[in-house]
Specification:
The protein is 27% helix and 18% strand. α1 packs across α5.
Length: 312
Amino acid sequence: MSGKNATETLYADAAGIARAARIIRDGGIVAVPTETVYGLAARADSDAAVARIYAAKGRPEFNPLIVHVGSMQQAAALAEFSDVADSVARRLWPGPLTLVLPRKANADLAAAVSAGLPTVALRMPAHPVMRALIDEVGLPLAAPSANRSNAISPTAAVHVSTTLDGRIDLILDGGACESGLESTILAIRHDGSCEILRPGPIGWDDLPDLVRAKPTAARVEAPGQLAKHYSPGKPLRLAATAADADEFLIGFGPVKGHFSLSASGDLAEAAGLTYAALHEAAASPLPRIAVAPIPEEGIGIAINDRLRRAAA
């Protein structure tokens, strides 16, 4: 661990990835870009390494971690895949979708990744840096977002430094994340029914026809379900069409603001900039934040989910 010293940042080229892989194999923790947000990666089979993730983030022990895999073979060694789960995974992996599945009794995983639950959350990322890192390490990687617990998620390397500088071993800088919001989390039950535990870039319309929906779970089974999360550290007002004098206004569409998520009203663009806007608002001298109305449709559902939790 880096202790009180500043955490080194390296470009996510072949040399940087090789260095990160050595650190992770030795039990260290590294911030790495994915297509959603930056993750804080450690080998998923090590109790000590996973404990370092929880300690660095100040993460509650009841909040499970997502395990990132590089292949269906790796995934199948960790969880039970029903026909429904197999169909969903083969259609939508690699990509911004996490599946919560029954954990295999002999899965080579640290106990803490499941936080005492009989399930495990798995994702096969699409980002070339994260995929290369998994390949180089040769093991599945536990990787929650690379920020202090409840803080704004990071979509750039500099965002990681904001809350984790000196607390982790390395930051791999792979530029800005494309999706900008964490993965959709889908729980697939033994009876074939499914629950979206956290909305994200993948919606119900993207899932195969055989997926049967159930109401969203109220209990914490996956990351991102806490009522208060993604906090900018300032009061945040939603559905604002204008700013008060002491507010930093995050605009959308016709509401311009100090920072616009998308002047044209493009929800995909807004998703990619949501956390960047919150980081800029948090750094502003203005003591309060207001956010323009975001349509509750498509990925706007996920944007509003994050904003409501940030405002809680």
